[in-house]
Design goal:
This protein has 15 helices and 10 strands. It has 365 residues and is α/β, with parallel strands linked by helices.
């Protein structure tokens, strides 16, 4: 009787242990899929403007997972943020690199994600016109046919930039075009002007366009932010893998923030098809450490809150999105501590001003 009871008890305990393990420690995924909100360029396809491009080029993530049984797969989306949201919704990707507005729209539409770290902040916005155009400033856009890539993180900044001079989208004849289509339309006189980012310097330097407006040196609120997100269910099932991914993004952010690497950084980013000269123009007089900081500081959080509020006012989403619980700083905190980078970057306040000469790791959210 005692022997039978002991054996039965052991069997029950073993079954419980196996069940508990299955729930708490899911097997490592066969593939870790990272969606990037740009079509990218080069061979292999990569992108610039973010430490993630360095991570991709150096294959540090593949190296980190080499002996884990998981392979890394990068997916690039010509449809930018909206296409990435669709992929997240369909669980076709596990991580997403995308801008602030599409991230907010995704959350408003019920996407369950966690925001892990910043990766390419304070991206500038420009308005360009054909080189022979009579347009000279953003004020001149009234009544003109203008390209804006709706639903991307440049969309809301474009609206705010127009608002700063007393204009709105309604004052323009807006055409919704992606980056490639917008460039083709501008050089063929299909539109009078276009909003966009650093990709326009390549067109300018060919003599096909001129910049008539730039957010460089203006209010930091007129810049675009990008971050790394993870599906909430993936994060719960695979925290070890999430930590590895964050570790490598922080490693890349550290390297990309070193001014000694400026020339090499731009060369790496140029593999995406955007020339070195474009990166020199985009980051003219801008610190690499400011641009490539991974911190979830007060400035980043404030920008996402503002984007949520503005998107609701403009009816891009039904109502402002609650951000409580969305920012998940623990993986970043661990990475900073393990790599000795807790004071590597300056943390900024909500208005984009430096809080101190040494950063706090991340804001608790």
């Amino acid at each position: 009787m005692t022997h039978t009871f002991t054996r039965a008890r052991r069997t029950a305990l073993l079954a419980f242990g196996l069940l508990y393990g299955a729930i708490s420690y899911a097997a490592p995924p066969q593939v870790i899929r990272i969606g990037v909100a740009t079509a990218g360029g080069g061979e292999p396809v990569t992108w610039g403007g973010s430490p993630g491009g360095v991570l991709r080029a150096n294959q540090w993530l593949e190296e980190a997972f080499k002996d884990s049984g998981s392979r890394v797969e990068w997916l690039f989306f010509k449809g930018a943020g909206p296409a990435v949201n669709e992929a997240l919704s369909n669980k076709q990707i596990d991580f997403a690199y995308q801008g602030d507005l599409p991230s907010i729209v995704g959350r408003a539409n019920g996407l369950k994600t966690k925001l892990l770290l910043a990766s390419g902040v304070r991206n500038n916005l420009y308005v360009v016109a054909p080189s022979q155009s009579d347009l000279k400033s953003i004020e001149d856009l009234k009544g003109r046919k203008v390209s804006i890539f709706r639903g991307t993180n440049g969309h809301l900044v474009a609206i705010n930039a127009l608002g700063s001079v007393g204009l709105s989208e309604r004052d323009l004849k807006v055409v919704n075009l992606d980056t490639g289509s917008s460039q083709a339309a501008l050089v063929s006189s299909g539109v009078d002007a276009a909003f966009g980012g650093y990709e326009w310097f390549k067109v300018r330097d060919k003599g096909l366009a001129k910049v008539i407006y730039s957010t460089q040196g203006q209010d930091p609120a007129l810049t675009r932010q990008a971050s790394l997100l993870v599906r909430e269910d993936f994060e719960k099932e695979h925290p070890e893998q999430v930590q590895k991914v964050v570790d490598q993004f922080v490693r890349a952010a550290n390297w990309s923030s070193d001014e000694k690497n400026r020339v090499e950084l731009f060369q790496i980013w140029a593999r995406s098809g955007t020339p070195v000269a474009s990166w020199e123009a985009e980051l003219d007089r801008q610190s690499l450490a400011v641009r490539n900081s991974p911190l979830l500081d007060d400035f980043l959080v404030a920008r996402y809150k503002a984007v949520s509020s503005d998107a609701a006012k403009l009816k891009l989403i039904r109502r402002p999105v609650a951000l409580e619980g969305w920012f998940e700083p623990r993986y970043l905190q661990t990475a900073l501590k393990q790599q000795g980078l807790e004071k590597r970057w300056v943390a900024f306040d909500a208005k984009g001003q430096a809080k101190s000469s040494a950063s706090t790791p991340v804001a608790q959210r």
